[in-house]
Amino acid sequence: MEMETRYGSSPEMIRHFSTEQLRDEFLVEELFVPGKVMLTYTHNDRMIFGGVTPTTKALEIKLSTELGVDYFLERRELGVINIGGPGSMIVEGQEEPMKNQDGYYIGKETKDVQFKSDDADNPAKFYVVSVPAHKIYPTVKISIDEITPFETGEDKTLNKRKIYQYVHPNVCESCQLQMGYTILAEGSSWNTMPCHTHERRMETYLYFDMDPDTRVFHFMGKPDETKHLVIGNEQACISPSWSIHTGVATADYTFIWAMCGENITYTDMDMVPMKDLK
């Protein structure tokens, strides 16, 4: 298992960052490595996110000294979405199948969590996000077949999309984690515009289901001083609470958003007038 630590940066710090410095600070280029657990620990609200890609044997997330606890979820909750081949998860001895797009919410103080693939040549790819938790909420498997997507956007503004809410008050209870799946319609490219900020919550994005030559231009920074990251398939980025949240790509794509912070109100965002963007 590998875990990299990223420390928080202020808008003033990144003002003069080079492209390489910006990518080193906010972009995670490799998450899904066969047979490995690849995690990133960001000090932005102490979120841990990454990929678990089991092949011939089950994998577990084992952290102790890094977090100062006896086991990974002693003081944390966990969200999971499978973006790969069929597999399963074993939670406290109970095994559940996990096909592509199935998810899981796993509550605080759960000790035994294992990830498996049905076929090592077509492994499951479990995207995992964990944040600190203060209360135990029930563990819930979230099947894609039971989620009714929220449809928004328009063809004329190039942002028609379906939003699947997984870890969300409409689906299950959580302490502070929110997590979901957004699919852009063919011909649409903006994941949100006009853009927004939410000072009360940070966010991470995993971009995937992209052709090899497709690239996402993920915009970040203060509204009056924007910067961008160029992101490829199955790469992720950290979006601090002070940053704008928006992106556009060269073709349609899918992304997983995950948030944590002061509340779990999905609509708690501050829209940025187009005239204020620079």
UniProtKB/TrEMBL annotation:
Pathway(s) annotated for this protein in UniProt: Glycan metabolism; pectin degradation; 2-dehydro-3-deoxy-D-gluconate from pectin: step 4/5
SUPFAM superfamilies: RmlC-like cupins
Main EC class the enzyme belongs to: isomerase
A biological process from GO: D-galacturonate catabolic process
Cofactor binding comment, as recorded: Binds 1 zinc ion per subunit.
Keyword hit for DNA-binding: no
Cited InterPro entries: KduI (IPR007045), KduI/IolB_isomerase (IPR021120), KduI_N (IPR027449), RmlC-like_jellyroll (IPR014710), RmlC_Cupin_sf (IPR011051)
Domain of life per record: Bacteria
Catalytic activity from the UniProt record: 5-dehydro-4-deoxy-D-glucuronate = 3-deoxy-D-glycero-2,5-hexodiulosonate
Keywords: Isomerase, Metal-binding, Zinc
Keyword Zinc recorded: yes
EC number of the protein: 5.3.1.17
CDD domains tied to this protein: cupin_KduI_C, cupin_KduI_N
Sample GO molecular function, one term: 4-deoxy-L-threo-5-hexosulose-uronate ketol-isomerase activity
Binding site for Zn(2+): H196, H198, E203, H245
Cofactor: Zn(2+)
Family: Belongs to the KduI family.
Protein purpose: Catalyzes the isomerization of 5-dehydro-4-deoxy-D-glucuronate to 3-deoxy-D-glycero-2,5-hexodiulosonate.
Record-given protein name: 4-deoxy-L-threo-5-hexosulose-uronate ketol-isomerase
Organism: Enterococcus alcedinis
Lineage of origin: Bacteria, Bacillati, Bacillota, Bacilli, Lactobacillales
Gene name linked to the record: kduI1
